[in-house]
Amino acid sequence: MKALVTQREDAMPASVRSDLEHVFRAAYPKVVGVAARVLGSRDEAEDVAQETFLAFSRTDVPPGEAIGWLCVAAAHTALNHLRSGRRRVSREEAASDRVTVAPDVADTVVAREDRLRVRAALARLPRKQAVALVLRHSGLSYAEVAAALDLAPGSVGTTVRRAESALREELNRDASSR
Question: What is the pLDDT of residues 32-83, one digit of tens each?
């Protein structure tokens, strides 16, 4: 086993952080959770997590700040995926390949459309609001959100409430334009 560890360490480029494995094991579930809340897909969230950890491996972010940095980066990356429209093509292909009979197809369609509307509205919010909203609803505490976004802890609640209000306005605007 020692030989395997030595080989693996020798194979790692010098630019890879020595604490990457430890940070990865500690933060991966939370990073995937943040991305999944934005994207609505575990598979795509894992892709975003991979991109996020790759970016993290090239930084000098202190280990104590890693989870906050990773969660913000995952939210940003997931929002970029939403905004770029890359998901639409893969989602349509996956939907056309899937032939399932749901107990109530109308409910399934309505729920899917609602989730898509919410994600589209989230993508139209100012980035800081969208990220604050995603992080807070991903289970991060006010203190963790504040640290991750470099906000005063007392302003996190206001930022999240404003983001929720802006999201409702976007959803209402979307509904009235139909």
Answer: 999 999 988 899 999 999 999 999 999 999 988 999 999 999 999 998 888 7
Secondary structure of the chain as H, E, C letters: CHHHHHHHHHHCCCCCCCCHHHHHHHHHHHHHHHHHHHHCCHHHHHHHHHHHHHHHHCCCCCHHHHHHHHHHHHHHHHHHHHHHCHHHHHHHHHHHHCCCCCCCHHHHHHHHHHHHHHHHHHHHCCHHHHHHHHHHHCCCCHHHHHHHHCCCHHHHHHHHHHHHHHHHHHHHHHHHCC
